Amino acid sequence: MSAPYGESLFSFLNITGYYIYSSSCHDLSSKKYLLSHGKLLLAGCFFAVATSVRSNGILSGILLAYDAIWQAYGLVSRRSMGTMVVRLGFTIVSGCIVALGLLIPQYLAYTSYCTNKDYIRPWCQSLLPSIYGWVQRHYWGVGFLKYWTVPNIPLFLLATPMLLILFLSSLWALGAGVSPRSSGTTPKTSSTISSSPASSLLIQLAIAQFILTVMAVTSYHVQIVNRISSGYPLWYWYLVWRALWTSDATQSAKNRTQVLLVVQLMVAYALVQAVLFGSFLPPA
Fold first, then answer.
1. What is the DSSP letter of 176?
2. pLDDT mean by block of 10 residues, the chain; 284 residues
3. Exposure winner among 15, 101, 117, 227, fewest CB in 10 A?
4. Where are the alpha helices (DSSP H) in the chain?
5. What is the rounded distance in angstroms from the CA atom of residue 212 to the CA atom of residue 77?
6. Model pLDDT, residue 269
7. Half-sphere exposure of residue 210, counting CA atoms within 13 Å on the CB side?
8. What DSSP state is assigned to residue 195?
């Protein structure tokens, strides 16, 4: 997505946030604590801005929630106190920064539309007033299973290839044993996840992406998954793994052919979508 539209900016911000977050985890494992904590806060800032561009950016906060849960568990089990307390504090602050990316636009909308007593919009009376939820329900008809209608079957078919890639890459990441490549060995998926930062990151990416996939199927206009998926790096990682990580020559050639086909379809779809999207037709 290279057009001057929300997805391209969101993808840049979200993937940059993921990169900074992963760098923070690497620095933490190398005991570069100050640098790691600073990068964690910076990643939260990128996720917050990404969330202000597209609300599904809030899913990136799952990385921080995952960390906070494990860090809190570590404190309860008293495995590590001092360092983990500090890290938990920075994780919570970073998570709050991400939440601001969703809350600040809501607050600005509330002060703009709900403070005039002469004309108050219906959503202002809600227990948790949200202009985003109102617009999605009232103008776009978004809701749980509301898109599951016979006329929308072609749109589900249009989204199926991307949904399949998202689903398979999420399952792969949840079961992947990540280890450095060595000659004569083939990395394989495993039910046991190693404790390396890369393995933990894979699980976190998988959780966020899987939730996005489920929400796209059940609650979104499903065809938009072809656009919003561009901001999630896991499925790119999965395609590279499919193309490169095997020692069997025949299987390697087959995998590369499959990945090449996927890339060709992505390019072709981008060209077609550029025309259709500009005309506000269904793939938008």
1. B
2. 71 96 93 95 98 94 94 79 87 97 94 84 88 88 91 91 94 69 41 59 94 95 90 92 72 77 82 77 62
3. 117
4. 6-29, 33-53, 61-76, 82-113, 131-138, 153-174, 197-218, 225-228, 234-244, 249-278
5. 32
6. 77
7. 15
8. S
CB-neighbour burial class of residue 238 (10 A; exposed 0-12, middle 13-18, buried 19+): buried
Q: Which residue has the tokens 């404190």?
A: 75
Would you list the domain boundaries of the chain? Answer: 1-139
Q: What is the pLDDT of residue 282?
A: 62
Encode 10-72 in three state secondary structure. Answer: HHHHHHHHHHHHHHHHHHHHCCCHHHHHHHHHHHHHHHHHHHHHCHHHHHHHHHHHHHHHHHH
Handedness of CA 231, 232, 233, 238 (dihedral sign): negative
Rounded to 5°, the CA angle 214-219-224 comes to 85
